[in-house]
From TrEMBL:
Quaternary state and interactors: Homodimer.
Domain Aminoacyl-transfer RNA synthetases class-II family profile: 14-351
Native organism: Roseovarius spongiae
Protein name, per record: Histidine--tRNA ligase
Any single Gene Ontology cellular-component annotation: cytoplasm
Binding site for L-histidine: 65-67, 92, 106, 110, 299, 304-305
Alphabetical keyword list: Glycosyltransferase, Transferase
Molecular function in Gene Ontology: glycosyltransferase activity; histidine-tRNA ligase activity
Length: 361
């Protein structure tokens, strides 16, 4: 086991490198208001966090990451452009993997910059790449923005698109919705009977729960409207699948995505941004010819990523989580900015894993 003092010292070293790159050091509270995280991610976040109740402050969560509080801090009083660095503990439940730590130290670097997102993406990735180069890690990249653009461009109802966008980070649920909206999945008998009934509430009995009779009736009407909507076309489903299947070196992936964009113009702007990013990465010494790209990469991480995503892993240690990861989260600044927004991208390194790999343990 790596001593905590050594991890703290490594965190200080990494934070110093980020400060040298122009980042201002910031601190955030370990206890974060649960209401903010629940509003962003819904009740699902409870499965990944530790909660406590305070008589004065209400429900609190042990900090699951730094990005949300750093964004809140910047949107309240930050100047533009801005670069921040931080280090400290984060807390994540690991109910399905007892071998992984549920408390560990992160060191991060965040860039808030309104112009040239491709250069900002390249800056963060190249800095992480340079710092981690001695470890010989495998880099992985992706772009959630391409898939979200594809969903937003589907010829279907706004409600269906909203549901798909909400579940992009839950691949199984996303796939189930695609199958249902494309008419491939049979309607459950209970739902079919509900929708066929002239008055579904006639024999409902006493109400149980918090929803009113009017709210339940409105939900049934939404289900009826959805059932009457035409299915998503097989062509569009195939194009979504083609995007998700892209897994090549970045240059070849760009070519494949440009081919898909011929039949799905909605993704063209996001694909062009990928091309700009590869040019920016090349300008910073990254070999885009060999850099891996997976269109589905990052879909099981925190939901705030909505564009470029990346990670660095040790191929010889599949038992370890990513040593570093990050991505773009423009939409999060809109959610937390109360009418203001600024494009933002960042990443984190786990110093404990850096030392573990250096020690060969």
């Amino acid at each position: 086991m790596i001593p905590r003092a050594a991890i703290t010292a490594e965190a200080a070293r990494l934070r110093g490198l980020f400060e040298q790159a122009g980042a201002a050091p910031v601190e955030t509270a370990i206890l974060q208001p649960a209401a903010t995280l629940l509003d962003l991610y819904g009740e699902d976040i409870r499965a990944r966090t530790y909660t406590a109740t305070d008589a004065l402050r209400g429900e609190q969560m042990l900090r699951p990451d730094f990005t949300v509080p750093v964004v809140q801090m910047h949107m309240e009083n930050g100047a533009e452009p801005a670069r921040y660095t931080y280090s400290g503990e984060v807390f994540r439940r690991q109910d399905d993997d007892a071998e992984r730590a549920n408390e560990y130290i992160q060191v991060g670097y965040e860039v808030f910059q309104r112009t040239d997102p491709a250069q900002a993406d390249a800056e963060v990735f190249a800095l992480m790449h340079r710092i981690l180069a001695p470890l010989g890690l495998r880099a992985a990249t992706g772009d959630i923005g391409i898939l979200t653009a594809a969903v937003a461009g589907l010829r279907t109802t706004e409600r269906r698109k909203a549901a798909l966008l909400r579940h992009i980070w839950r691949p199984r649920r996303f796939r189930a919705l695609i199958e249902r909206f494309a008419g491939r999945a049979p309607v459950p008998p209970s739902r079919a009977a509900l929708l066929d009934a002239a008055d579904p509430m006639a024999d409902a009995g006493p109400l149980i729960g918090l929803r009113s009779r009017a709210e339940i009736a409105a939900r049934i009407e939404v289900l009826r409207e959805d059932a009457a909507a035409p299915p998503i076309s097989e062509t569009e489903v195939d194009l979504i699948d083609a995007i998700l299947d892209v897994r090549e070196t970045s240059v070849h992936a760009l070519g494949r995505l440009r081919d898909i964009a011929v039949d799905m113009p909605a993704i063209l702007r996001a694909v062009d941004l990928l091309g700009d990013r590869l040019d920016a990465l090349a300008g910073r010494g990254i070999d885009a010819e060999s850099l891996p790209f997976e269109a589905a990469y990052g879909r099981t991480q925190m939901e705030y990523y909505d564009g470029f995503v990346f990670g660095f892993t040790a191929e010889a240690r599949p038992d370890l989580p990513p040593v570093a990861s990050g991505g773009r989260y423009d939409a999060l600044t809109r959610r937390l900015g109360q009418g203001r927004e600024i494009p933002a991208v960042g990443g984190v390194i786990r110093p404990g894993l850096v030392l573990k790999l250096e020690a060969g343990t």
